[in-house]
Amino acid sequence: MIEVNTNRPINSSPLAPGKPDLMRTTTRRYFLQQGALVGGALALGSRAFGATSANEQVNLGVIGLGWRGGQLIDAFGRVPGVKIAAICDPDSSLVDEWSAKVPDAQTFSDLRGLLDLAEIDAVAIATCNHWHCLAALWAMEAGKHVYVEKPLCNAHWEGVQVVNATDRYKKICQIGTQQRSAPFLGELKQLLHEEKLLGPIEWVRVNRFGVRASIGKREAPLAPPATLDYNLWLGPAEDQPIYREKWHYDWHWDWNTGAGEMGNWGVHILDDVRNNVFQDSVAFPQRAIAAGGRFGWHDAGNTPNVHFALLDTGTIPVVIALTNLPDKPGSESAPKCPGPGSGYIAYCEGGRLEGQRGKAQFFDSEGKLIKEFSGNDGMGAHQVNFIEAIRNNSPDSLNGPVNEGHHSTAWCTLANYAYRAAQETATSDSTDPSVLVEQLGADARLSAAAATILEQLSQVAANNQQGIDALELTLGPVLTFDSASEQFTGEHAEVANQYLRTLGRGEFVVKEV
User: Fold this and answer.
1) What sequence ranges are listed for the domain Gfo/Idh/MocA-like oxidoreductase bacterial type C-terminal (predicted)?
2) How crowded is residue 57: how many other Cβ atoms within 10 Å of its Cβ?
């Protein structure tokens, strides 16, 4: 358990041992609510951590109260028998906002105070990406079941520790890829794999063509909001100056705290591919190559707004095309692409499957629509699935168990690491995509398709990069990943392995489980 220092100074945080000014921005009402917790915790001390039966109320704590945290409060609040019993965020303005909507919930700035509540059975984690693993580990150590948002991690090794923790602490842990709870997936997989409606699957294209805007670039570092406890917000991330214009959400486009579009939207689509096309039979890609860059914006972000990756899975190859740029500067329209703009195409011998959130279509080899699914995208049902697994003590009933979340996240992180290696390492033949694609064992047709996708993304970049008529994205080296050790091996391994683990900071360190 996480211990609370009962001998702390009277003006220190009641939630963070040995941190005198940890809650310097907390309001008086906020402080009084937290100070009242001691008596409540003692009164409920006989309740076992996480112990519930099918008839018991599940008390949920929500950690992280930004856009996604608010969605989770709404979704879990609709599940019968669930009480939003505590909420937490290092920004007191967000806590105050949500406290008005869930007035019975106890409020915290430091998640460790929430985790010390004996009456909390489970937590939903919707923090910045860099906090996901540490928050999940502390929660399971404290005896709580965990619903953690995607991506599971930015650093692959940290995701390994969360998977290990579910085994060590025997806790239910669901990843927030809610599309796994969409109701039509069973029939889709029946048609694709058992009835083989389209024949053998040959390769997969993943698209994320979604327009975003520049995050700007300041001359002086951005100061944290006055309502924010910066030390808690930063947690295990490095203390680096921030030059973007907005504090919240735009952390996605900084490697220190986010994972770019690949970890933001890409993980949803790649999880769909792993689930529906591969039926979770492939944990990790064997090899990966990538290209891309950040074009047109000249802002403070360092994640790519154009990203190409090819993943060698050992069976069906996967080509990824992501861009946040418009078709031309000033436009609000994304570049055109085959299939859904945010989804995938499974090219088969007898046609193709196009899948996206809440929808899937089967086309024959002539392009005729032969079967279509649409409906709930899984939001709501995914939260019900998590609560039912807790009540029934049935981790095997989870639609999005954390080990699958770890695997799907790895497809994204490997694509990111391959991109970062491309920025650091130049190879003599890297400007010829067919050479490197052929190194992955791809046939001539796939090699040509991959080269066409790379050429299209190069044109998107050129269209948005002022003063350039044509631009050639440079592919990085082929990276080889060993699924047993969960590390890169062979040539250029040292370039990629440096991203597998972060050091943490002070008291905020992910430890080996």
Assistant:
1) 222-279
2) 13
For residue 218, how many C-alpha atoms fall within 13 Å in the half-sphere facing its CB? 11
**Single-letter amino acid code for the residue at 48:** A
Number of H helices, E strands in the chain: 16, 16
In terms of Cα–Cα distance, which of 254, 318, 287, 259 is closest to 493? 287
For the chain, 513 residues long, the average pLDDT of each consecutive 10-residue run is: 29 31 32 32 32 73 97 97 98 97 97 98 98 98 98 98 98 98 96 98 97 97 98 98 97 98 97 98 96 96 97 94 95 96 98 97 98 94 98 97 98 97 70 60 75 93 88 89 97 95 96 96
Q: What's the one-letter identity of residue 392?
A: N
How buried is residue 258: exposed, middle or buried, by Cβ count under 10 Å (0-12/13-18/19+)?
buried
Which phi and psi (to 5°) does residue 41 adopt? -65, -40
Strand runs labelled E in 109-230: 122-125, 145-148, 173-175, 201-209
Determine the 3-state secondary structure of 323 from DSSP: strand
Q: What is the DSSP letter of 445?
A: H
Domains recognised in the chain with CATH numbers: 58-179 (3.40.50.720), 191-375+402-498 (3.30.360)
Strand order in the sheet with 58-63: 106-108, 82-88, 58-63, 122-125, 145-148, 173-175
Reported for 65-69, long-range contacts at CB under 8 A and 24+ positions apart, including other chains, are 65/89, 65/91, 65/94, 65/95, 65/97, 65/98, 65/126, 66/94, 66/126, 66/248, 66/249, 67/249, 68/126, 68/149, 69/94, 69/98, 69/124, 69/126
Scan for tokens 């939260």, then name that residue.
383
Q: What is the largest CA-CA distance in the chain?
A: 75
Count the Cβ atoms, other than its own, within 10 Å of residue 9.
9
Q: Which residues pair with 146 in a beta bridge?
A: 123, 173
Radius of gyration from C-alpha coordinates of the chain: 23
